[in-house]
């Protein structure tokens, strides 16, 4: 899902903004596609995003902001205020926000996960990637998903088809069962 989003939205020579510390996979995929990474502070627990610094890093080749929420490896959950500020910056500069929400059910006490895609104003600028690996303890299955603006979904599907036609059918049926687990499983 991440590869499909990145490959659809960016091309070689573009750049993206990511917040440190970040999951090295995100940077490695960018490097493989020759997309430059502008690494900025902002993903440590207790750290506040410096929106002026982020805004100053946007240039004509910036295509997206990559956000991991909750963050891997720090565990930081971005506040609603921070998410709105990132969304407003994306609107201002016509950027996409690719959000990895793989850890949405793994949060520290006293924190809450909010998906930026749930805020109507930003829906057309947000692509959410996630998966089943962590919450269902099936990392080797490599099952994930992506959702975003309707006009981009066909493009994501075409790119995804180049890298992975589809997961094995038994895995798909297992995930349908898993998605019907009671809330107590997630709690």
Report the total helices: 7
Morphology call: globular
State the share of residues found in helices, binned by percent. Answer: 25-40%
State the end-to-end CA separation. 26 Å
Q: Order of SSEs, N→C?
A: HEHEHEHEEEHHH
How are strands sequenced across the largest beta sheet? 2-1-3-4-5-6
Please state the average pLDDT score. Answer: 93
From the alpha carbons, calculate the radius of gyration and give it in angstroms: 16 Å
Beta strands, count: 6
User: Which range does the strand content fall in?
Assistant: 15-25%
Which stretches of 5+ consecutive residues score pLDDT under 50? none
How would you characterize the largest beta sheet? 6 strands, mixed
Describe the structure.
The protein has seven helices and six strands. The radius of gyration is 16 Å and the shape is globular. Helix content is 35%, strand content 18%. It has a six-stranded mixed sheet, sandwiched between helices. With 187 residues, it is of the alpha/beta class. β3, α4 and β4 form a beta-alpha-beta unit. The mean pLDDT is 93.
In short:
The chain is α/β, with parallel strands linked by helices and 187 residues long. It has seven helices and six strands, in the order H-E-H-E-H-E-H-E-E-E-H-H-H.
Notable traits:
alpha/beta; globular; 6 strands; six-stranded mixed beta sheet; 18% strand; 187 residues
List the helices and strands and how they pair.
Elements: H1 2-9, E1 15-20, H2 24-32, E2 36-41, H3 51-57, E3 62-68, H4 80-93, E4 96-100, E5 126-131, E6 144-147, H5 150-163, H6 169-178, H7 183-186
Helix pairs in contact: 1-5
